[in-house]
Design a protein that fits this description.
The complex is a heterodimer of chains A (about 300) and B (about 750).
Chain A (H helix, E strand, L loop, with lengths): L1 H21 L15 E7 L5 E8 L14 E7 L5 E3 L1 E6 L5 E8 L7 E8 L6 E6 L7 E2 L3 E2 L3 E9 L3 E13 L4 E7 L3 E5 L2 E9 L13 E13 L7 H4 L2 H4 L8 E2 L1 E15 L3 H4 L17
Parallel strand pairs in A: 1-18
Antiparallel strand pairs in A: 1-2, 2-6, 3-4, 3-7, 5-6, 7-8, 8-17, 9-11, 10-11, 11-15, 12-13, 12-16, 14-15, 16-18
Chain B lengths: L1 H24 L1 E9 L10 E6 L7 E4 L5 E7 L2 E8 L6 E7 L2 E4 L2 E3 L8 H4 L10 E2 L2 E4 L1 H5 L10 H5 L5 E3 L7 E3 L7 E5 L2 E2 L18 E7 L13 E7 L8 E6 L3 E11 L3 E10 L1 H8 L6 E15 L2 E15 L10 E15 L6 E17 L2 H4 L10 E18 L2 E17 L12 E16 L2 E12 L4 E14 L2 E11 L2 E4 L11 E4 L7 E14 L2 E18 L11 E17 L5 E16 L1 H7 L3 E4 L7 E11 L2 E10 L3 E2 L2 E7 L14 E6 L5 E2 L3 E14 L2 E10 L7 E5 L4 E4 L4 E10 L1
Parallel strand pairs in B: 1-7, 1-8, 13-16
Antiparallel strand pairs in B: 1-4, 2-3, 2-5, 5-6, 9-10, 10-15, 11-12, 13-14, 15-16, 17-18, 17-47, 18-19, 19-20, 20-21, 21-22, 22-23, 23-24, 24-25, 25-26, 26-27, 27-28, 28-29, 29-32, 30-31, 32-33, 33-34, 34-35, 35-36, 35-37, 37-38, 38-43, 39-42, 40-41, 43-44, 44-47, 45-46
The chains are: A mainly beta (about 300), B mainly beta (about 750).
């Protein structure tokens, strides 16, 4: 019995020693601190006298944000002229309670100018910056319509446009009783970079499905308007991410921020409209204007 | 497939014909070995026959879980028979065998006076180190060696001591066996599947020790009788009710109280065993434990056992369990609650046809699992919570199978057929974004064949299992193999097999607290499959010492894993993955005197691999390989138990290396960069800045549990009192770490426990 007791005591002592050795490692090791400290979102607009960029601090935990000042000095430098602009913080409370810091500057950047947007922490931390090139002024050109027996294709060229974001097409309709309506849809044709600019192709044909327009036929097509945002060259999504929101959200997928995340680009909206000819309309499911009552007097 | 069926039929016919021929010309002895005290079947008893004319010759068999034995191919004549089992008086007699079949049922009496060192030191068919090609048999005595927070003990409290079994912690009831997911384990109780048998509080399952006859753990490479699951089989056999006298047990402890009764309804023929347990966490443990314990569970079990004749048995088993608990951030304002209920019943008929060297088993079972995740009913009563969603997942199965064992001179021929229909239904409310789960049912049918040849110390058992399903439009042919070679104290074993799992469990393993699993039918041609390879060596250098080493490899295909996304959300999309798990177990057990010491070490490597264009964008390579959250690399368990001055002491120390998790480096806000952002109206989307998936390692785990039991005879009853302590050195073991808030949920702190158990003698 004594031998047994001594064995058990020895076993327990060994267990205690082993457990004491392992008991010191209860905490969860923190990962190395990120070099990136801020995430920036915004777009310089050469068509506006005021510019806005949101500065998001990178935090250790998930939070709604804080109204406290960020403790940063935010400024931008026009690399073309050397002019420096000081940005001021404005705290925004969004629906749902999230709080954002949107920095504002009275600035109208020139087309094709280049700017550096800088966030300088007042505690001496690393500067976060983004290089923001502005696109040239672009006037879209409706090229010669291509007609075949059953379709009309409109080529639209945007000379010098480095990137065209969020293109839309608006149809303007008129029914047989002179009621007018419009429908805006994401641009249904091709839209892609081309040599010396950006090329769009819009095709209308006899087989175009009327139901897609959510209006009753017969109806006349009065006008087509294409809108888009001419954007800086870096604002180009990787192909795999364009249609994958889960991928698009990943920090590495689209960023031009040094020592941070996010994207500060530049963009302005441009639109162009045209009236399809009778010849073109004959190749579509649409009627020509005034196909019902005479609407010209209204 | 038709060719395979034909070949199998031919093989079976040849075996049956040879068995019949052999039976007609020779003698066979068969029967059941039971406990004299209560009529319980006694498995693993050795039945040895020596011809009186040739005392050097020896024929023998061991009893199975029903206490059944058969020795066939004997020359007619006089024999000396000896039936022995550890802890029982040996039965010895002489008998004359004539050509044909003779049934001899034997009752063994408990060896009260020899229950000491000499008996306990002997060879055992179970124990921490007694594993053969992935199979380990667990007996109630093994479970009682491990300290538990109540007197009765529970199977799961022992299972978590085994190398290769990783748990989610002391709550949630999730067991990962050699790299497999919990939904890939097949758990059977008397042939009935139990889909979530582990209670929400990790010490307890639907299998309290007092109800068990034995439990076989197949950690891989299981034979052709089992199928439909990828990872492992836990085959639990319950005790039968006492056929001789009424007995009852009542117990209470800080977490659970229990009551069971067993009685002969017709002495020696029909018995009943009924048991119920109810958690008393609220009433007792919560009163003195500082940590929140929002757990509530119960289980009820009943079994009717009937012996209508010498050569048949049948049993009816019923099980009902309920669980309810908050698993994740218990201290948060609105913790989600998981609730699950198992219901099931099985009918089992065992038949020994006269004059046939055959054992036939007919099984019919129904089992269902209903799971809910969401706010508690009390929370839903408040207006502010009514909008919160409840997610549900239901799974049910009807199973019918016939299992036959032809007893041959050089082994057995095991074969069987089955048909089962599984119903799945769920309401997930977008929990898995790209998975449409709704009501579905799948019928599968098939057969298996697993002959077992024994030549000297060599056992070879090739097998095949086939499955066809009109609903799936698929057929599976799964080869299996098992081999053992024993010489002296050495035993080598190997096992291999191919496994498919048409009904898959879907869970979000990004979150350790996510115990909610929905079940669905695997998509076409994407049925998860696994190849298992195992090899082991076991050594018994002395009758009271067992040592073993076993290596395993599992190749896993068509798994589903949660997609990694920077959105901090509880919903997830799933993507396909392959994986592999490999490692080894080292085990040793010594039983000097009345004590038992065991040490086990498990080494495991689990990798999952996904291939996608998204990986290429995120990580620069379309192939992403990562360690899943249950890949515990090292696991050590030490157990010591033994009587000291009439007190049964036991201690268990466990150590586990840290589990992988996906580290968050920080959080920011994301705005869609597809056009100019609306900075004053669009708050954006919260975003997690991750490293690569599962790139961090959580702290190690270690715990010491102690208990001391003393039994007193009090009149016609026996009282067992227990004192114990869980987590004796109050280690802060992590259960879950919320990377969104940096808040940790720890497992149970140091908890002193006490228990009482009163049983009739």
């Amino acid at each position: 019995m004594a031998a047994l007791l001594s064995r058990i005591a020895l076993g327990l002592a060994l267990v205690y020693v082993a457990s004491s050795l392992t008991a010191c490692d209860e905490s969860i090791p923190r990962p190395d601190a990120l070099e990136e400290t801020y995430t920036l979102w915004g777009a310089f607009d050469p068509g506006s006298d005021q510019q806005f960029v949101r500065v998001v601090p990178i935090t250790d935990t998930l939070s709604l944000g804080s109204r406290d000042p960020l403790g940063v000095d935010v400024r931008s430098v026009d690399l073309t002229t050397g002019a420096e602009t000081i940005w001021r913080d404005s705290v925004v409370t969004y629906p749902g309670g999230a709080i954002g810091h949107v920095f504002t500057a009275d600035l109208r950047p020139n087309f094709e100018s280049r700017h550096v947007f800088r966030v300088i922490p007042s505690d001496g931390g690393g500067e976060v910056s983004a290089l923001v090139p502005l696109p040239p002024l672009v006037e879209p050109i409706l090229q010669t319509t291509r007609l075949t027996a059953a379709e009309a294709t409109y080529p639209l060229f945007w000379p010098g446009a480095p990137q065209l974001n969020n293109p839309t097409l608006t149809y303007f309709f008129e029914d047989g009783n002179c009621n007018r309506d419009s429908l805006q849809v994401p641009f249904p044709g091709t839209s892609e970079p081309a040599e010396f600019g950006w090329q769009m192709m819009l095709r209308l044909d006899e087989d175009t499905e009327p139901n897609a327009f959510r209006i009753e036929f017969p109806t006349a097509l009065l006008r087509l308007t294409v809108r888009g945002e001419v954007a800086s060259e870096g604002w180009r999504l990787p192909l795999a991410a364009a249609n994958d929101p889960e991928l698009l959200i990943q920090p590495e997928v689209l960023t031009n921020v040094e020592n941070g995340f996010g994207f500060v680009g530049s963009a302005y909206s441009v639109q162009t409209s045209w009236v399809p000819t009778i010849d073109e309309l004959q190749r579509t499911p649409f009627e020509r204007p005034n196909f019902g009552e005479d609407c010209t007097s209204q | 497939m038709p060719r395979l069926v034909f070949l199998c039929a031919l093989l079976v016919a040849a075996f049956v014909a040879s068995a019949d021929r052999a039976a007609a010309q020779t003698a066979q002895l068969r029967g059941f070995v039971t406990d004299e005290a209560d009529g319980q079947p006694l498995p693993s008893a050795n039945v040895a026959l020596r011809p009186l004319a040739d005392p050097d010759a020896l024929f023998g068999a061991a009893t199975d879980l029903d206490g059944f034995y058969a020795v066939i191919g004997l020359e007619p004549g006089p024999y000396a028979i000896r039936v022995s089992l550890l802890g029982y008086e040996a039965y010895e007699d002489t008998l004359a065998l004539a050509p044909g079949t003779r049934q001899l049922d034997i009752e063994l009496a408990t060896a009260e006076e020899t229950l000491g060192a000499a008996t306990v030191q002997g060879d055992r068919a179970s124990g921490a180190a007694t594993v053969t090609a992935g199979v380990q048999r667990i007996r109630p005595a093994d479970i009682r060696n491990v300290p538990a927070p109540d007197v009765t003990g529970d199977l799961v409290n022992y299972l978590v001591s085994l190398p290769g079994i990783v748990t989610s912690g002391d709550r949630g009831g999730q067991l990962f066996i050699r790299g497999g997911e919990p939904s890939q384990n097949l758990v059977l109780l008397d042939g009935m599947p139990v889909f979530q048998p582990f209670h929400v509080l990790g010490f307890y399952s639907a299998f309290p020790t007092d109800l068990l006859s034995s439990a076989d753990v197949y950690a891989g490479g299981y034979d052709a009788r089992f199928g439909g699951q990828l990872s492992s089989v836990l085959d639990v056999t319950s005790r039968n009710g006492n056929l001789r006298e009424v007995s009852a047990t009542a117990a209470i402890a800080p977490f659970v109280s229990s009551l069971s009764i067993e009685a002969p309804l017709i002495p020696d023929q029909l018995s009943v065993l009924a048991s119920g347990r109810r958690s008393v966490v609220d009433q007792i443990a919560d009163q003195y434990v500082s940590a929140p314990l929002p757990f509530d569970f119960s289980d009820a079990f009943a079994k009717l056992y009937f012996v209508p004749s010498k050569n048949s048995r049948f049993s009816l088993t019923g099980l009902y369990t309920t669980d309810r608990g908050a698993i994740g951030e218990i201290e948060s304002d609105r913790p989600d609650e998981v609730r699950y209920t198992n219901r099931g019943g099985s009918f089992r008929y065992l038949l020994l046809p006269a004059e046939q060297p055959l054992l036939a088993e007919i099984l019919f079972s129904y089992s269902e699992l209903a799971t809910e995740l969401g706010p508690s009913p009390e929370q839903l009563d408040t207006d502010s919570e009514r909008d919160r969603q409840i997610r549900t997942a239901d799974l049910s199965r009807i199973n019918t199978e016939v299992n036959l064992t032809y007893l041959l001179g050089v082994g057995d021929l095991r074969l069987g057929a089955y048909i089962k229909t599984t119903n799945v239904a769920s309401q997930l409310n977008g929990l898995f974004q790209n998975v449409t789960l709704n009501q579905n049912h799948v019928t599968e049918a098939g057969f298996y064949l697993q002959p077992e040849f024994t030549i000297g110390g060599l056992l070879l058992s090739p097998g095949v299992r086939t499955t066809s399903s009109p609903h799936l439009g698929q057929s599976f042919i799964e080869p299996r193999f098992r081999g053992e070679f024993e010489i002296g104290p050495h035993k080598l074993s190997v096992a291999a097999g191919l496994y498919n799992q048409p009904i898959v469990g879907v869970s979000d393993r990004r979150d350790a607290t996510s115990v909610f699993t929905a079940y669905t039918v695997a998509p076409d041609q994407q049925t998860p499959e696994a190849l298992h390879l195992l090899g082991g060596y076991r050594l018994q250098p002395a009758p009271f010492i067992d040592m073993s080493i076993e290596g395993f490899y599992k190749d896993l295909r068509n798994l589903s894993v949660s997609e990694f996304t920077a959105v901090p959300q509880l919903t997830t999309a799933l993507e396909p993955a392959d994986g592999e798990a490999y490692g080894m177990d080292l085990r040793a057990e010594a039983r000097p005197g009345g004590a038992t010491f065991s040490a086990t070490y498990g080494l495991s490597f689990v990798d999952y691999t996904t291939v996608s264009d998204r990986n290429r964008v995120l990580y620069g390579d379309p192939v992403l390989t990562f360690r899943p959250g249950h890949d515990r690399r090292h696991q050590v368990t030490l157990v010591a138990s033994g009587p000291v001055f009439g007190v049964d002491l036991s201690a268990r120390w466990q150590f586990g290396s840290g589990l992988p998790y996906s580290r968050a480096l920080g959080f920011d806000t994301f705005l869609q960069p597809t056009s100019r952002p609306d900075l004053f109206n669009d708050p954006g989307q919260a975003r997690v800045l991750y490293e690569r998936p599962f790139n961090g390692i959580l702290p190690t785990y270690s715990r010491l549990d102690l208990s001391a039991d003393r039994t007193f005879d009090v009149g016609p009853t026996r009282l067992t009192a227990q004192l114990g302590v869980i987590n004796a050195y109050d280690r802060r073991n992590l259960f879950a770490f919320d990377i969104f808030t940096l808040r940790r949920s720890d497992q149970l702190p140091i908890i002193p426990t006490f228990g009482l158990k009163l049983e009739t003698r």
